Amino acid sequence: MKKNTYLLFPVVLSFLLACSADVGYAPDKDYSGTSPSYNADELGDLPDCDSKHEGLVVHVNYYPSHDYACSEGYWVALGQSTTDKKLPDVHETSDDAVALHEKFKNVESVQILDTRDNKVYKAIVLGDLVWMAENLDYETRYSRTNPQCDDLGIKCGRYYMWDDAAYGNDDYSSVCLPGMRLPTEEDVDKLVEFIGGVSNGYVLKSKSYWEESEDAPLGTDELGFNAYPAGYKRSSRNYFEYFGTETVFWTDISNGYRSSLTLSLYSHNSILGTNWGPDWDNYMNVRCVGDL
Predict the structure, then answer these.
(1) Of 52, 148, 172, 191, which has the highest C-beta tally within 10 A?
(2) Could you tell me which residues come within 8 angstroms of residue 104 by beta carbon, excluding any fewer than 6 positions away?
């Protein structure tokens, strides 16, 4: 099989050899069809091409901009390229960041059964907690569905007012599956800690349906949390808003003044937001959590 020949840039001196001629290097592994995962301003920002970075593709902005792949100990120029996508900074490939993303790869995926209606949901194990990896879709008297999701064939689940989500009915303490709950303050803190801080909210986003922004990386869904930009509905309006740019989940944390803390993700930044303010009669999604 014919191998592609690339420009070669050794690990340590890559920033000195940016104008090197083709040295005829033909790596066994061809990463030419791989999209970049990170961004760097110049060649000197690239980390050492070692075993933990094997296969990493980085978009380097230094003119002319190229994509570079770490292949068998060398940074290999894959060719000139441009990208309109906002990518995470390559500094996230530091030892701590690499360890964090390796942890994400080892997240266990499980299935859980809602015995009330026999629906099966995907879930993920994050530390000592089990988080739903899909939006709850249990029908209540006041819950709503979003026709935009139905038209696209994606699972947005149902949308609930906070009273409906928090108190459920006579048989259940919340709308959640038996044995699960709306996220508590402790649950939220553990989620933020697991993903490495609120600035890493993009790892919870789905890879599709989010509007692209120059100010934020696209969703990577590294944990399998698969948060779609499902938007929400205000009680004062008869339509759903912010599909494609925002998703909001209820927690059980209330200030007693008809508002609750919510978990939010946005297209214009990478933050996992914890925000006060939504009135209880707005319709938001629910992700239940349980103890392992």
Answers:
(1) 191
(2) 203, 222, 223
228: Cβ–Cβ under 8 A, 6 or more apart, which residues? 135, 149, 154, 155, 156, 206, 209, 247
Q: What's the distance, CA 241 to chain centroid? A: 21
Q: What contacts 150, CB < 8 A, 6 or more positions away?
A: none
CB atoms near residue 95 (< 10 Å) = 9
Structure token pair of residue 98: 């690499």
Render each residue's pLDDT in the chain as its tens digit; 292 residues. 444 434 444 433 333 333 332 334 556 677 877 878 788 888 877 888 888 778 888 888 876 688 888 888 888 888 766 565 666 666 655 666 677 878 888 999 999 999 999 999 999 999 999 999 999 999 999 999 999 999 999 999 999 999 889 886 555 578 999 999 999 999 999 999 999 999 899 999 999 999 998 878 889 999 999 999 999 999 889 999 999 999 999 999 887 767 788 999 999 998 999 887 668 889 999 999 999 8
Most distant CA atoms of the chain, gap in Å = 75
